[in-house]
Amino acid sequence: MTSILRGLFGGGQSDQKQRHSLPHNRSRSVPVNYIFVSPSSIPPTAGSVMKNNSSYEAPMTTQPPPIRYYPDEPLTAPPRSYSFQQQRQPHRPTFQRSLSYKYDHYTQYPVYTPIARTSSDSATSSNRPTSSQGHARYAPPRSASSTSIPTPRRPVLKHNNTWDADSRPVAMHQPRPHVSFLNPNSKDSINMHPLLAAGRFHSAPISYDVTFPPSSRSVVDRNTRTAVPTHTLAQPATDPPTFTKLVMRCDKFPWPVLVSPSSKVGKFYLGNAPTIPTETQPISNMDLLYAVHSTLAIRVTHEEWDALGNGSAAQRRVTRAYERRCSKTGGGWDGGVRRIDWLGHKVQLIGIEVDRNAPAGGIAKLIFGRP
């Protein structure tokens, strides 16, 4: 019995010594002695079973297997752990958790859903979001179905703040917003007739030699060289029409050109009915051309001539223009120098440009060119 116990408990040390000395004893070729013990000779009171000389396990007959299913236990019970010393873990309370949370998917832009209001609330703007307790409420878009009631849409191109969902008629005494695109601080500007209007990038179709009075021979189209119709010359020269006077200027001479409407034209009837005077007509294109011709046909004074300077280049240029004009008309030498001679070679009226930066709605500038 002693040899058996020595073989069981003491053999481990001899085996370890033998294993450590095995590499050194292999060269000697010493056989290893193995001890075989029958299973019946092992006492039943052994507390553990040797396994690989380094690990121990509890007897399988006294402890349950590590994986065991208990059908009577609830699913929320914590898992059991098995070791040499069984430790009890505190009981964890169970929590009632929902598997999913339903919520409404709101669109990026909230959809306003108007509600019916009383007559006292209709005066206020309907652009405020509806609320029951002071908080804005927006409803997500609903899908169309056979049982759903469509929300009334706002009428197209209707800009008033008194629209309701029930489409009730609006009282006529309620104030309506007034929208104006006119600047009250801006001054009224005038536009010239298309026959006379000229700009920086375009010229007027008229071509009028101011040396002669306006006629079918002197007032022609610049491109076709045909006479301008009489009904075109009778149309208002400005838009809106001018009924008082029109002031025009030019950079080539210092005198302003004042245009006034023609005299009143009375209506006359057949028989003994008296002639009834009518209202003043607006300034027409013919009135403007006559005003330009009559202003430039005035003879200059000695003061205006001396203002150019004695013997200056300006006086010599005006003198040459005077000689060309008299030669062209075949007379007028005794008439002396006139204002038209300040234009030099450019005696052809080719348009009128309105200066928008000038006060009083703009000033019309005469533009002259060569014939």
Descriptive report:
It is a single chain. The protein has 371 residues and is an alpha+beta fold. Among the domains are: 2-43, no CATH class; 191-298 and 338-369, no CATH class. It is built from six helices and ten strands, in the order H-H-E-E-E-E-E-H-E-E-E-H-H-H-E-E. The protein has helices at 2-20, 22-25, 230-233, 285-296, 302-306, 313-329, and strands spanning 49-51, 55-57, 191-192, 206-209, 219-221, 238-239, 246-249, 257-259, 348-355, 363-369. The strands form three sheets. Strands 5-4-9-10-7-8 form a six-stranded mixed β-sheet, with helices on one face. Strands 1-2 form a two-stranded antiparallel ribbon. A two-stranded antiparallel ribbon has the order 3-6. Strand 9 (348-355) and strand 10 (363-369) form a beta hairpin. The protein is elongated. InterPro entries: DUF6699. It holds the Pfam family DUF6699. Residues 1-27, 53-96, 117-179 are annotated as: Disordered.
Q: What distance lies between the first and last C-alpha atoms, to the nearest angstrom?
A: 152 Å
**Per the principal axes of the C-alpha atoms, what is the gross shape?**
elongated
| Number of helical elements | 6
Helix content: 10-25%
How much is the average pLDDT?
70
Subunit arrangement of the protein = single chain
Topology as H/E string?
HHEEEEEHEEEHHHEE
Strand content: 5-15%
Order of strands across the main sheet: 5-4-9-10-7-8
Sequence stretches where pLDDT stays below 50 over 5 or more residues = 20-27, 46-56, 81-85, 122-136
Largest sheet: 6 strands, mixed
